[in-house]
Amino acid sequence: MANKEYYKCEIDQVIVDIGSDGQVGLTSKEVETRLEEYGKNVLEGGKKVSPWHILLEKLNNIIVYLLLAAAAISFALGDTVEGIAVLIAVFIAVAFGFVSELKAQKSVESLQSMIKTKADVVRDGQLMEINSEDLVPGDLLSLKSGDAISADARLIESTNLACMEASLTGESIASSKDASLTFDEDVSLGDRKNYVFAGTAVTRGNAKAIVTATGSYSEVGQISSLLKETKKEASPLNQELDKLGRLLIGIAALFALIVIVIGLATGRELSFVLQVALILAIASIPEAMPAVSTITLAKGMSRMSEHKALVKTLDAVETLGSTSVICSDKTGTLTENQMTVESIYLLNGQEYEVTGGGYEPTGQILHDGTAITVDSVEKLQQFLYAAVLNTNATLQEEHGEYSIIGDPTEGSLIVLGDKVGYSRNRLHDEGFERLDEIPFNSKLKYMITLYQKGDQKYTFIKGGPDVLLDMSHHDQDTKAKIREKNEEMASHGWRVLAIGMIDDNEAIYNNTCDGNVRILGLVGIIDPPRKDVMESIRLCQRAGIRVKMITGDHPQTASVIAKQIGMRSYDNVMTGFEFDNSKHTQKFDHDVCRTGVFARVSPRNKLDIVKILQETNEVVAMTGDGVNDAPALNGADIGIAMGVRGTEVAREAADMILTTDKFSTIVDAVKEGRIIFANIRKFVYYLFSCNMVEITSIILSLLFLIPDLPVLPLHILWLNLVVDILPAMSLGFEPAEDNIMDQPPRKKGQGLLSASFLKPILLSGLVLGFTAFGIYAFSLHRGFSVIEAQTTTFTLMAIMQLLHILNVRRVKVFGLDKTLLQNKSMIIAMLVAVGLQLVAIYVPLFNNVLGTVPLGVENWIYILTFSITATIIVYVLKRVFKMK
């Protein structure tokens, strides 16, 4: 049964319409019928990604297709060794990607625990506890403080009821509820005071409610259904690699055509020409690239986990580095989601600042910046008595983590007392004994407690300042002063409470509170920013990343928090109502892009904001922890969920989960993403320029009518799959360039294939290619045999390409500096590559397979001279043309 607009209906109408009973609930038989009709009260979980799906996804890569085609052609031409070598490259790439992503998927498989709780219901006139998954529409819920609410329900009775709905609405303050209310007009979820919702919790009071919607029909379920409407675009890296793959097809075809034209024009045999064309096609494909890119991303995933960021997919690792806008939820993401007293104002004009944030009871009360002793200030002491003793919330500690049982606002007063040694337990031990209370409710909007200590009675009251002012006996000047202070404190985004006493201790019994209230002072309460957020925002802005706040909270509160954390557009606020009413205006997209704070927004609004930003070519990261954040988390380029306080729905929708809930972890992850992309650029530069060496030398040998090729097909595969692969992989472990977080994020479409990136590949590839052809021609001129000249050229390519990595690994300087010691894997990779090359030319078995011969000292002198000279020339070109 879907949610109807029962919040507009009278209680009796709801009970009749839904076919239930407000006293005895449903019968057991009716429950069975409705379970069959509506199903279990569970959310539809995300589809589990099967290992086969991950494997097929890794195979579905254009470069993998090219490699498989090259292997097939090799087998068709009888070149079995070459075909096997190419298949090994494919296996390495796919295996690394499959294992890494499967491990990540298993780490984040969500349990649907959000609504799998217990529920108290009345059935057949008996109160019983059942599994919440067995709730059906029409069930009569019995709710009390601390209960998790497992279904949407219309209240039919309520006493002092309040619910924490932050996960659904974004509100950081508990919402008061009243069963007697009805509404004539449409109101938002947060304003439906006669309703309770699945996924929220009771913070105070008790109630009875008729279940109106369960499972996917609940508001939580409706939000979850939005997840199915959004599909992820390919990551920026995948888009770039797809472009690269298409370019490779064109390059391979072009070189094959060039070879055929040159070969036929110079009178070469057709079989020879076709064989050379295949060799060049193989040479133009960087066989190691899929494996290297996968391993680099997997290493990035591992490093992010060390920073307490769990990334679900390899692609998401790099996407973070492209992020240009972070859309962040407020409550629990930018703030602690723990109400905290920040300011105290006493009627004598004294103002105090309270240090310490959240529920941890550490902090001080300051006056003019100096810590004070409460016992020495009588009026402050009296204020704290009234504030602490007029609460029902409880502070609890478990494993060093503090939490509140009960109303969070009351919890802030409890923590305030604990900070300065005025805990409720201490006051009770001193002799304060509670005699009676009038609990807070949405009609009275105040709470009264009556205490006795010895022979003296005390009546404490707290509530909204306007309410207590109307009940007070203060003169008009004093009232005006309190109202002015109330407005000033509210302008800071604080929730303001008035704390007072009632001089007539019998007022609680004879209803003579009006005119007897004596206000002691005001207290300003707020959900404070997380400690790490301000510095993280500053780093984001330094990196050219815009941060936008998207919250269901009040606009003024959101704007104040945005200002406190240093957001630049904190005063540019748009509400969900304004968003919906401005959708069709001409400047709507522009207004959305320039807005810094979106307040009172719905889950649909959040998703629409993300989509608009994506349509303006932004790479959008969305952070959040609530059910209301899930659609936007799923729709963003990178969804980031808070893992500690976040809901299962949010974690399931996200691409990355922060296991510490620290916003600063996002900045660390963005930096890691940028490092990864920079390193991917480096190994693409390295692999492609090395492939250019082989292509250039072969084409030159054809143009200069040299009968034999400078290198053989197996030489090329050996260089690509054995010599180059380890150094290329080690580029994935390169430390960050010094200014990596001082650069703006790259724009969509400006990735690997920019002109500034292709230029160094071509120039360095040509220099090294001419050098390789030069040593081949020189060796033949010196009278070397063809096989010795080929072995010399083959070895030169290996050594020269290893030296070339020193030009690649650092953007502005030569890579032979102290930073090389930070990448020990590169040193090891180069030594191993040299060792393997020596095996290729000095081990008889490999001489036979690869067609090589052992080289003498003279050969090595030529190899070192030519390779060092070429490396110097490339470095000079790098400085002259400022290669990037």
Please write out the topology.
Layout: H1 11-18, H2 28-38, H3 51-59, H4 62-76, H5 80-107, E1 118-123, E2 126-131, E3 140-144, E4 152-164, H6 166-169, E5 175-176, E6 195-196, E7 201-213, H7 219-226, H8 236-265, H9 270-284, H10 289-306, E8 309-311, H11 314-321, E9 325-328, E10 340-346, E11 351-354, E12 365-367, E13 370-371, H12 378-389, E14 394-398, E15 401-405, H13 408-419, H14 424-429, E16 433-438, E17 446-453, E18 456-463, H15 465-471, H16 476-490, E19 495-502, H17 507-510, E20 517-526, H18 533-542, E21 546-550, H19 555-564, E22 573-575, H20 576-581, H21 588-594, E23 597-599, H22 603-615, E24 620-624, H23 630-635, E25 638-642, H24 648-653, E26 656-658, H25 664-703, H26 713-723, H27 725-731, H28 755-781, H29 786-808, H30 824-842, H31 844-850, H32 857-881
Helix pairs in contact: 3-5, 4-5, 5-10, 5-26, 8-9, 8-25, 9-25, 10-11, 10-25, 10-27, 11-25, 12-13, 25-28, 25-29, 26-29, 27-30, 28-29, 28-32, 29-30, 29-32, 30-31
List keywords for this structure.
32 helices; about 900 residues; Calcium-transporting ATPase, cytoplasmic transduction domain A; eight-stranded mixed sheet; alpha+beta; nine-stranded antiparallel sheet; Calcium-transporting ATPase, transmembrane domain; about 15% strand; Rossmann fold; 4 domains; single chain; about 50% helix
- The CATH architecture classification of the largest domain is Distorted Sandwich
Briefly, what CATH class of the largest domain? Mainly Beta
Task: Name the poorly predicted regions.
Answer: 107-116
Instruction: Give the class from helix and strand content and strand pairing.
Output: alpha+beta
Within CATH, the superfamily of the largest domain carries the name Calcium-transporting ATPase, cytoplasmic transduction domain A
Number of beta strands: 26
Cα shape: elongated
Distance between the termini: 60 Å
Number of domains: 4
Question: If you average the pLDDT, what whole number results?
Answer: 84
Rg, rounded, reads: 35 Å
Strand line-up of the largest beta sheet = 13-12-11-10-20-19-18-17-16
Summed up, the helix count is: 32
Proportion in β-strands: 15-25%
Largest sheet: 9 strands, antiparallel
- CATH fold name of the largest domain, please? Calcium-transporting ATPase, cytoplasmic transduction domain A
Q: Estimate percent helicity.
A: 40-55%
Protein name: Ca2+-transporting ATPase
Subcellular location: Membrane
Organism: Breznakia blatticola
Transmembrane segments: 59-77, 83-102, 247-266, 272-298, 683-706, 712-736, 757-778, 784-806, 827-847, 859-877
